[in-house]
Amino acid sequence: TGVTGTIFINGDPISTNSPSFRELSCYIHQDDLLRPLMTIGETMMLAAHLKLGFSTSKEYKQNLIKHILALLGLEHRYHVFAGKLSGGQKKRLAIALELISNPPVLFLDEPTTGLDSSSCSQCVSLLKKLASLGHTIVCTIHQPSALIFEMFDKLYTVVDGSCIYQGPVRELVPFLEGQDLVCPSYHNPADFLLEVAVGEHDRDLVKLINAANKKYHEDADNQQINVQRLLSRIKSKDACSKIAGNLKRFPNVMSKLTSFDYVKPAADEVALEEVKSLNASVGTREKLDDKDCDACPTGRGKINGRRSTAYKALHTEQASFIMQYFLLLNRIFICARRNYFLLLARLMSHIVIGLVFGYLYMNVGDKATTVLGNYVYLYGTILLLVYTGKMAVVLTCK
Fold this sequence. Notes:
Layout: E1 7-9, E2 12-14, H1 19-24, E3 25-28, H2 40-52, H3 58-72, H4 87-99, E4 105-109, H5 117-132, E5 136-140, H6 146-151, E6 154-159, E7 162-168, H7 172-178, H8 189-197, H9 205-233, H10 237-247, H11 254-258, H12 267-280, E8 302-303, E9 306-307, H13 321-338, H14 340-360, H15 371-396
Parallel strand pairs: 3-4, 4-5
Antiparallel strand pairs: 1-2, 6-7, 8-9
Helix pairs in contact: 2-4, 3-4, 4-5, 10-12
């Protein structure tokens, strides 16, 4: 793509190919890649076996699946085939599959594409609910409604590879007004911003980009001041505990998940990460040293030898290659057994092709003059078996 750069998590550089990055994040595709002939429960259990391995008990996985489905409002659809779900329910199921490993960061590619207005609102509300539980949600979205647009906390707008605005959604309209771009009260701010991006209001985008960069640095300076103020208040352990209690943003539903040990955010760690987020989210130029936060008695994980986020993930080994093979083979058997028409069509096609081949090469014999015919027969038979076996994979790959 010609795009280069460095990825930072809490101010620490990390490689996208590293196992730690894969544990910390997940990517949810725009298209829901689900097996239509498997129920929600079977799909979730298969994902749990693959991600958590067999060192984790089946009872734990079942309880975890029930609580995740209850969190996403899918518990009443446990025995429903994925192919019979609505668009919004399929999107929620795709999110539920990734929540099994509890990644702190979720990347979504246009999660509202193909959904009606009601399903869009439910999907974004779900993402906002997950954000309140401590997850970081990053998603791309095009032309959201005013209601959906207000649900987002921060906005990053890109035009031709350059940023024309980054910051809180609530500050977008005042920022545009400061650039002599007044958004009418009856107009959707998201639509107005897109109109500005395509040049409908005769605005020089270069000046807008420079204004966005200026705002970015001003916000960074203000955040640095807030960091120093907060730092001065956590010099003692008592103050740290008090601030941690004020910074907790976890609703009652969090107690359902933390009871299973696969998410255990410590209160003191939340306070520490709040300081780090103030420091890193807006790109402040002066970083806090570890010794500055020694007042917070936290147990810190590691990412590439550095501190990770405040999340304590369940450390389990994924299923081995052999177990993955048998799990996926069992999935194929389940789908083939339930799709009677496809199974019958494959059997009939093999029988018909076998009869045709048998008729064409009947009584050929094993003489030297028929060697080429026998060779063509064997070659065609092998190709038939190989390509018919791979055809299902080729047709379903995207």
